[in-house]
Amino acid sequence: MVTYQRFSCFRRALSSSVASDVTVPPNSTVFSLIQPTGRIHLGNYLGAIKNWKTLTNSPSSNSRYIFGVADLHALTGLKDAKLLRQYRYEAIASIMAGGLDPEKCILYHQSSVKQHTELAWILMCQASIGGLHRMTQWKSKAQSQAGSSVFDDKVVTNSSAGFFTYPVLQAADILLYKSTHVPVGEDQTQHLELCRNLAGSFNHSFKSDVFPMPQTLVTPTKKVLSLRDPSKKMSKSDADQHSCVYVTDEPDIIAKKIRRAATDSIQGISFDPVNRPGVSNLITVVSGLLNKSIEDTLKAMSSVKDHKQLKDFVTEVIVEEFSEKRRLYDELMKNRDHLEKVCKNGTNRANEIAERNMKEIRRCVGLD
After folding, report:
1. Of the residues 18, 142, 149, 246, which has the maximum number of CB atoms within 10 A of its CB?
2. DSSP code of 178?
3. Higher pLDDT, 85 or 133
4. Are residues 359 and 260 in the same domain?
5. Could you list the active site residues?
6. What kind and span of H or E run contains 14?
């Protein structure tokens, strides 16, 4: 059993954390989805949910916030129906446990609003093969699926068409609600550029101004890396489960994983992602959880002198952040009826907006 009193010398820094000043202009529509991949880990939390909560807690006048679970996108990789059903609810429970209030936003499953796929086909007819071929993510996913270290004709032949057309459905997700702002990680900025290109192409082709040009809200926290191998992203699919901290992990498990995190042989604590990726990754985690810049985080950690103290500090921050969220997640997963009610309400609200916009889109293309 870990005794957390030993971390008490760091509590002053924890209590001094402040909320990030993240806002959008009045009358904005903010939209984002996450894939249902089971329990939410630290990277998911910092890369999406925490940012969503900050946005909804700092609302701008007459703005709309639409968040949900990208269960249609999950079909590109998940082939187990039972698991997908479970993961969909785990994702909703994780989002709510992470602090998102469904009274302040629309929260729903992507597949429950059929207009997503209708608009995806219309945009598919606007997209070029060349434009899709330039997307780097589908190439890496295709290589991963094929177990190949190179991208060649064999990989393309055996790749799922879903990987290739994924960005078009993603664009449809965003444009369906005439979204003005999309909070994403750095690895999604290329997809957002394609989305803007498709919006512009549609508006030009049909001599309309149906779609606004959505702006990217890059997640404040940089990419969270594997605890064991900081050369790659934190991922649930990592064979070494000590590389990934989940929101639902007990304090002792969190402490164990952080103790095993990769660091280096350099004395002292400094932020240097190139030469000190392991140490820098831990500092990035603290920065994201405390809502501080890297510079202010290092100041808050001025009493941390070695790797052991750093890991104790990181453990304390994560345990403090996730303790209540873990309890709430467990409660929500035991109350499926409540989750169903939240999703049904979100679906109804999302469907109303989607259908209103699709009527205008159908008129533009002649399908009314």
Report:
1. 246
2. T
3. 85
4. no
5. 141, 233, 236
6. helix 11-15
